[in-house]
Amino acid sequence: MTTAADIMSSGPHWIPATESLDRAAQLMRELDVGALPVSDPTDPHERMCGIITDRDITIHCVAAGHDPSHVTAGDLCRGTPRWISTDADIDDVLQEMESHQIRRLPVVDENKRLVGMISEADVAQQLSDDQIAQFVERVYA
Fold it and tell me: Which parts of the chain are coiled coil (predicted)?
């Protein structure tokens, strides 16, 4: 059985909720990632309060006319972040990503600490061409 721990990219980089979005964008560029987990200011690097994407910065900040140097990562966090446990199997990963139409999924250990991220590319490496087509159709529908 393939688990979330088997396919995730480990060692995700955090950004504090109090950090500006221009710094978040710079960090995304440096790390060549499209999303960053946002740490809860009361428990940095232990508890995730959200996740921001490059698209969030573009659509909800820049395109809305806001200055990314004056908007924080925490300002963009909305709702409860989705996540999956390290021992979840690939079917559970697919179900979570498809049902919530998300492209990146944080992975947490038994202590609820963030240990990795699963992207579309990570998932695609595990699927047949037909399964990839179905996944894309469901996530992007």
Answer: none
Q: Which two tokens stand for residue 113?
A: 């600490």
Is pLDDT of 6 > 80? yes
* Residues 124/94/82/17 CA torsion (nearest 10 deg): 0
**Beta carbons of 40 and 48 less than 8 angstroms apart:** yes
Fold of 4-140: CBS-domain (3.10.580)
Mean pLDDT value across the chain: 89
Q: What are the residues whose beta carbons fall under 8 Å from the beta carbon of 60, sequence distance 6 or more?
A: 76
Confidence class for position 88, pLDDT limits 50, 70, 90: very high
User: Would you list the domain boundaries of the chain?
Assistant: 4-140
Locate the DSSP E strands across the chain. Answer: 9-10, 15-16, 35-39, 48-53, 84-85, 104-108, 114-119
pLDDT at res. 105: 92
On the 0-12 / 13-18 / 19+ scale of CB atoms within 10 A, 54 is middle
Contacts of 88 (CB under 8 A, 6+ apart): 3, 4, 96
- Structure tokens given for 14: 């955090």
Q: Which tokens go with 39?
A: 């740490």
